[in-house]
Amino acid sequence: MTQQEAFIFSGFGGQGVMFVGQLLAYTAMDCGLNVTWIPSYGPEMRGGTANCTVVISEKPIGSPIVRFPSVAVVFNLPSFDKYEPVIASGGLLVSNSSLVDQTSERDDITLLQIPGTDSADDLGNVRVTNLIMLGAALTARPVLTVDDVRASLADHIPAHRRNLLDLNYAALDRGVELASDLLVTA
Amino acid sequence: MSVIAPETMETVYSYPQSLTEKPTHYCPGCTHGIAHRLVAEALDELGLRERTVMVAPVGCSVFAYAYFNTDACEAAHGRAPAMATGIKRVDPDNIVVTYQGDGDLAAIGSADIMHVAARGDNITTIFVNNAIYGMTGGQMAPTTLPGQKTTSSPMGRNVDMTGMPIRMSEVLATLPGSAYIVRRSLHDVKHIRKAKKAILTALKVQQAGLGFSMVELLSSCPTNWGIQPVDALQWVEEHMVPYFPLGDYKIADGVADL
Amino acid sequence: MSKELLKGNVAIAEAALRAGLQAYFGYPITPQTELLEHLSKRMIELDRVFLQAESEVAAINMVYGAACTGVRVMSSSSSPGVSLMQEGLSYIAGSELPCVIVDIMRGGPGLGNILPSQGDYFQVTRSAGHGDYRPIVLAPASVQEAIDFTVLAFDLADKYRHLVLVVADGLIGLMMEPCELPPFQPVRTTRPDWALTGADERERNVITSIYLKGEEMEGYNIKTQERLATIRATEQRWVEHLTDDCDLLIVGYGTAGRIAYTAIDEARSKGLRVGLLRPQTLYPFPEQRVAELAEQVERLLVVEMNAGQMLEDVKLAVAGRAPVDFFGRMGGMVPMPDEIVSAIDESFAKMAQPA
Questions:
Q1: Are residue C212 and residue C254 in the same domain, yes or no?
Q2: If you count Cβ atoms within 10 Å of the first and of the last residue's Cβ in chain C, which end, N or C, has fewer?
């Protein structure tokens, strides 16, 4: 990886953006990297979008907040509108095209349009949209490997959710496939 | 205290062990001294002195910590119940007693006393109600009677402006956490004896872990009422007792067996 | 011990528990509520005292009572709640009781908002209540420091019989970082000789903050000032980053100090020689080291999430040796690294101007 990567995950409450950010943070920690996870909180969360910022670095992390993230994973339209303009040049935007029909005019970022919600529905549970989006993001931006995520998921998933482990693995794989197809086409 | 007496004489009256021999600062005719003695006698009789922590209030009895011969502390104004909660929760086997006046308990500390009772904390409160702020020189209290003159209600308490006096025992008795809530008076010997009995019961309630216990004591303040001590006791009987009826307001299950 | 990924609020709660916390009293307020929630479960599991009070006023007075019994006791809150605790903090100080209070600061004044702020610097360092005293104030800049300082806070409180505040902001309270928790200390089985435990086979103990005679009150004040002089002489804590050769010294604590690291990296990459002194104790303020560095640098820049509060302590320490600039965001706005870089550029521009 480059010295430092800043991910933003943003979407409606209930789309699992906080959890998927935490999963990425756990993975970074398990890989021996420095990491910070910060949620948006407060009135911002009520009714609107929820987001979290994950900074991953080989060096100690100064600022845990970033103005220009290197990766934005957006799950709904308000999130797309908020983060598309601020992604750092050379960065990645992963958009949930099941809910976002917008496209980007920017030519200095990579846009991956992943039908996250629809694909999760195909897998039988829309709640794994977040894992599909993460799988796709890490395929285009291999800061950490999907295998690392898999291992961390197995280590940190709460006991009462263990029955969902295989479904989560499948969702990660689905995200990898969708992104790989798009990247090959591009 | 040294007692000079021929061998043939028997000591029939002395300081309770639970009182220090420090002369109190209370005004002549004030009933705080009686209330202190009753509490001390009750602690002695139940053998509780060595594991009692007294919490003194802000008000005339601010120095209560100096007069009770127990471990003691001095709370912020109105906060004795919260402080007592902190002490009791750490050491539930100790006996924790707050001693509070009407300004402290019924005004600035009204939330604290409500919640200590609501939680059913096993503490005992001695509530000295003399219908006035004594320490600050005789201002209107939440328990000041309608028409009663004080330095901050010089024309007499105007209930249209300030509302009616609060009857704390009645209020606190409505809370399920209260185990023993009674009102007594210190205006004559007969009533003082009844007050003593109530204080003993309240402490036993705490020992038995039945919940919050409070003894409200109608008391006199001759200095700030501006009348003679004997007249002040009569004033308690004639004016306070009718508005603050004596009686038992909450006797929880199990109290009768103590 | 292996690393865990913990939220600042939860980490502080767990660290307190492991430092032998025996009693906690608190009231919910954002952005510190996870701290109270974590203890509501863990303290009960461990058969220790947890109680949600009816207000911060009640909570701090419960702390006051529990502190009288000589056990390790704590409360936590956020800015408006700490305002409500001021009276109790003063009584605790006046009674010379050890206890730890955590303030996860938010935007103000008034109800303000729940966003990260450092607006309580004056509130916590000047006295935290009426009367003439100062608490010890620790300011972590990471989840790990929040853990370490929570443990340190209890040790300092006991060592000096003094009030200790741990102050962070909503960002540190809600941020997750890898960290290591300390080992479990057993709760103390003995009580200090001054504690209110019942006067059984000993003289009775009395704890008050009342000294009616001026001479006696002044005696307390003098004793407190002597203790504070010892604390000032021995407990100043800070960290430095690239101060050996810097022309501009940034002084910032907590979140602002941490964000300054990133800004300094950027400024250094442009060839600007910038360093950082990050106070870890706000009281005692690291005045000696700031004074030394003020001799060495050309200029200072204070960065805070308020209108310039620690700025006064920096100026007192610098005592005119060098000019002191200020950059702050308020209202719950967190300074971005590029904003601090702009402030650095401005300071260098001023240096270039003839005096």
A1: no
A2: C
Tell me the domain boundaries of chain A: 4-185
C98 touches chain A (CB under 8 A): no
Q: What is the mean pLDDT of the segment spanning B23-40?
A: 96
User: What's this model's pTM, rounded to 2 decimal places?
Assistant: 0.94
Q: Look at A39 and C338 and tell me if their CB atoms are within 8 Å.
A: no
Chains A and C are in contact, defined as 3 or more C-beta pairs closer than 8 angstroms: yes
pLDDT computed for residue A1 by the predictor = 58
Pair C169, C318 in one domain? no
Domain check: are C16 and C100 in the same one?
yes
For residue C259, give the nearest of A29, A34, A63 by CB distance: A63
Residues near C14 by Cβ (< 8 Å), separated by ≥ 6?
A: C6, C38, C42, C147, C181
Which of C200, C234, C268 is where one domain is finished? C234
Question: Are the Cβ atoms of A63 and C261 closer than 8 angstroms?
Answer: yes
Measured CA angle at A40 (ends A34, A42), to 5 deg = 145
Which residue range is the domain that position C74 belongs to? Answer: 4-234
Helices A146-156 and A129-140: crossing angle, nearest 10°?
A: 140
**Domain endpoint, select from C180, C202, C234:** C234
> At the topology level of CATH, where does A4-185 sit?
Pyruvate-ferredoxin Oxidoreductase; domain 3 (3.40.920)
Inform me whether the C-beta atom of residue C257 falls under 8 Å from chain A C-beta atoms: no
**Spatial contact of C257 and C172, defined as CB atoms under 8 Å apart:** no
* Whether C58 and B71 lie within 8 Å, measured CB to CB: no
Closest approach of C212 to chain A, Cα-based (Å): 47
Whether C204 sits inside 8 A of B72 (CB atoms) is yes
Please state which CATH number belongs to domain B32-251.
Answer: 3.40.50.970
ipTM of the complex: 0.93
Out of A26, A36, A42, the one facing C175 most closely (by C-beta) is: A36
Provide the domain count of chain C: 2
With CB atoms and an 8 Å threshold, state whether B76 touches C68: no
pLDDT digits (tens, 9 = 90+) for A146-182: 999 999 999 998 899 899 999 999 999 999 999 999 9
Cα radius of gyration (chain C): 21
Contacts of B121 (CB under 8 A, 6+ apart): B81, B84, B85, B88, B89, B177, B211, B212
Handedness of CA C121, C124, C129, C132 (dihedral sign): negative
At C284, list the tokens: 């005692």
